[in-house]
Design a protein that fits this description.
Elements lengths: L13 E3 L17 H10 L14 E3 L8 E4 L5 E3 L9 E3 L1 H4 L5 H4 L1 H7 L4 E6 L4 H6 L5 H4 L4 E5 L4 E6 L4 E6 L5 H11 L3 E11 H11 L12 E10 L3 E11 L3 H9 L6 H7 L22 E2 L5 E2 L10
Parallel strand pairs: 1-2, 5-6, 10-14
Antiparallel strand pairs: 2-3, 3-4, 6-7, 7-8, 8-9, 10-12, 11-12, 13-14
């Protein structure tokens, strides 16, 4: 990941107020009194004007994951870590990256201080150099739309979100390009379709297909304009049942179903690799086999109930 230098922008600073509170000082270089720092830590209101703190800096009162990290806004008030992961990881929000075109470099020190594995989301401007260097220039038709670009440094995935139509897609660093993003974006603007596949396996049958087929080695194969995400899921030591939700442009609906009809088995592990959600949102306990070919019926809602396991392999 190349980090192009910035000559006209101050890198964001990190203040660990649990272990190194003395690093936070006044603009004249003098220390802040313990009493003043204690009062501020309790109230966490606007930062005094004589303190040496700038827009975009991070103040952290956390002892472990950055659940109590705060960003300094332009009016010197504090924004608590929005934590898009819901698991205590740091989200660097668009509120503080909107004016930069190199968010990774601006927040490099903070990412290193908190730890890359504790940063789940960096919300970037569409013209950020990281996007340009790794995917390409964002086309005008995408720039002129309400599109959000969120990078996950843990998974090394760029999530492209269209909040106005509730659509999102993950693009892996190093294996996708702006062409992939543009194809998906164009298809997302067209008429959409979806279908669900339900599964229900338990007891010896569940263990047999988990052990025989090594389910975690398989992958979904879908048109690049389609995505998959888990629906309601119940997983135990001897059972699994639930559903998978597939959606994309109607133009490729038949192709998506045709590809799934060739898939004999899929697992929670594949969902973790292809879903729109973060890995932490899925419990990787047991595999979930199903087969579209042997679907028992098509429901009125477009879903397919799958109850018959695939045949055992020869030999």
């Amino acid at each position: 990941m190349a980090l192009t230098s910035i000559s006209n922008e101050q890198p964001a600073r990190y203040f660990d107020l649990v272990h190194k509170s003395e690093t936070l000082k006044q603009k004249n270089g003098l220390s802040i009194s313990d009493a003043a720092l204690k009062d501020f830590s309790e109230s966490r209101t606007a930062i005094p004007t004589d303190w040496d703190v700038s827009f975009g800096d991070v103040l952290n009162w956390s002892k472990d994951r950055p659940t109590e990290a705060y960003f300094v806004l332009e009016d010197r008030t504090l924004l608590k870590n929005p934590d898009r992961s819901g698991s205590g990881y740091l989200t660097i929000p668009f509120n503080v990256t909107k004016n930069t075109r190199n968010a990774l470099l601006k927040y490099q020190h903070i990412i290193e201080s908190i730890g890359k594995d504790n940063v789940s989301t960096i919300e970037m401007h569409p013209e950020d150099v990281f996007i340009k260097e790794n995917w390409g220039e964002v086309p005008h038709e995408i720039l002129s739309s309400t599109v959000q670009f969120n990078y996950n440094p843990i998974e090394e995935i760029l999530y492209v979100d269209l909040p106005h139509i509730s659509k999102s897609k993950a693009f892996k660093l190093g294996s996708t390009t702006m062409n992939n993003i543009q194809i998906w974006f164009t298809s997302a603007m067209e008429d959409q379709a979806s279908f669900r596949i339900k599964y229900n396996f338990s007891g010896p049958q569940f263990h047999k297909y988990h052990d025989i087929y090594k389910l975690h080695h398989l992958n979904f194969s879908l048109p690049q304009t389609w995505s998959v995400e888990p629906g309601t899921t119940d997983i135990g030591h001897d059972h699994c049942h639930g559903e998978w939700i597939f959606h994309g442009d109607r133009k490729h609906l038949h192709e998506a179903k045709k590809k799934m009809s060739r898939t004999k088995l899929v697992t929670t592990q594949q969902l973790m690799n292809t879903t729109l959600f973060n890995k932490s949102d899925i419990t990787p306990l047991m595999a979930k086999p199903y087969e579209v070919v042997n679907a028992t019926n098509d429901n009125n809602d477009g879903s397919q109930d799958v109850t018959k396991p695939p045949d055992e392999p020869n030999g």
